[in-house]
């Protein structure tokens, strides 16, 4: 367990260091309050010095915004290729996270935040971090993400295919981009009658498992390797009153036995995630995609099929060749029965000022219907 140390009122103090992005504990820490100027805070952060905030909560948020504005003055340059532009963009985002992550707040033994005008963050922190285990130091930017996640969890995301809301937990990919959900809701189902089974691999919030049950699948087994996702899926399945038809198991990718339908929406981009939330989008070397394809033949019933839902954003970014996915499907002993596509509806696809806009505008999400050869 990492610890940070600083001197305050001529007394050496310490706190347990917590970072969801696995950022190392800062080596140098100073105390900051309402007198801290934005230029000074930005300079210290760029030099690697962290600041424990002792002033007003809302002033801390304003200071964080001011530091962010200073980072905006140096936008990342474009590369000579889509792949280079992507890596430069990721490098700039990583630098931004490191700088903004240097403004720290202290959580007390019960996860409370003792600052002037601070909100009650105990429930949000308990849901994200688990039961409190002593005072800890976290970055203000991370805490704001925790607070935002609590609000999304309370509000939920409307899913037209379910005529209901899905409630994402902290660290679990939210189904805000609905096109992949619509593909699963509209793709033709093979066979009918009682006893049909399905696996939803990497279930996340449980939204696709719920859609499959909504479409008449009798028994759905949902899996994930992320304990937070398993808890989130169980919560949503209970909210939707589907516990008699959906079983959540894990942590694992494939459950035991075989299914008539195996569905998987793996992370789309073969790159390293820098936070827990990014694990739903970034997957180094397409590890989950390859494991899914490799394991399919031994988990499909003789007449079963699999649905692979995958964006081609990686191809437009130059991170994966156009032939890589079809070749991996063939190498796994599978064949493509059909393929359905849709265009993204999110604002980034239509905003020319969005980073990597050219690739995002060309993006297509596909549902590949696969069967064993």
UniProtKB/TrEMBL annotation:
Positions of the Methyltransferase small domain: 192-310
A UniProt-annotated Pfam family: MTS
UniProt-recorded Gene Ontology molecular function terms: nucleic acid binding; protein-glutamine N-methyltransferase activity
GO terms classed as biological process: methylation
Keyword terms, alphabetized: Methyltransferase, Transferase
Matching InterPro entries: DNA_methylase_N6_adenine_CS, N5-glutamine_MTase, SAM-dependent_MTases_sf, Small_mtfrase_dom
Region: Disordered, residue numbers: 341-365
Entry keyword annotation includes Transferase: yes
Signal peptide: none
Protein name, entry field: Methylase
Natural source organism: Embleya scabrispora
């Amino acid at each position: 367990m990492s610890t940070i140390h600083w001197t305050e009122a001529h007394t050496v103090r310490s706190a347990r260091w917590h970072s969801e992005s696995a950022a190392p504990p800062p080596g140098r820490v100073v105390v900051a309050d309402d007198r801290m100027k934005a230029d000074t805070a930005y300079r210290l952060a760029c030099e690697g010095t962290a600041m424990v905030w002792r002033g007003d909560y809302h002033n801390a948020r304003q200071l964080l915004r001011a530091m962010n504005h200073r980072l905006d003055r140096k936008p990342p340059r474009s590369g000579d290729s889509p792949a280079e532009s992507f890596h430069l963009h990721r490098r700039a985002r990583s630098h931004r996270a490191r700088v903004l992550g240097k403004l720290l707040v202290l959580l007390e033994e019960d996860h409370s935040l003792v600052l002037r005008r601070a909100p009650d963050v105990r429930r949000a922190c308990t849901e994200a971090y688990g039961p409190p285990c002593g005072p800890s130091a976290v970055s203000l930017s991370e805490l704001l993400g925790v607070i935002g996640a609590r609000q999304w969890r309370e509000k939920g995301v409307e899913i037209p295919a379910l005529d209901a809301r899905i409630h994402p937990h902290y660290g679990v990919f939210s189904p805000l981009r609905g096109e992949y959900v619509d593909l699963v809701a509209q793709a033709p189902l093979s066979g009918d009658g009682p006893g049909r089974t399905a696996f939803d691999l990497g279930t996340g919030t449980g939204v696709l498992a719920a859609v499959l049950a909504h479409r008449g699948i009798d028994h759905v087994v949902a899996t994930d390797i992320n304990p937070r996702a398993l808890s989130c899926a169980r919560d949503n399945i209970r909210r939707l009153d589907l516990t008699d038809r959906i079983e959540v198991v894990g942590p694992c990718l494939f459950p035991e036995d075989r299914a008539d339908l195996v569905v998987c929406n793996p992370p789309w981009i073969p790159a390293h995630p820098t936070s827990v939330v990014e694990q739903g989008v970034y997957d180094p070397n397409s590890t989950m995609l390859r494991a899914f394809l490799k394991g399919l033949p031994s988990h499909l019933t003789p007449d079963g099929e699999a649905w692979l839902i995958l964006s081609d954003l990686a191809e437009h970014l130059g991170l994966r060749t156009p032939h890589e996915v079809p070749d991996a499907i063939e190498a796994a002993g599978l064949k493509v029965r059909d393929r359905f596509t849709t265009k993204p509806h999110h604002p980034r696809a239509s905003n020319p000022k969005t980073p990597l806009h050219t690739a995002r505008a060309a993006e297509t999400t596909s549902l590949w219907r696969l069967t064993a050869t």
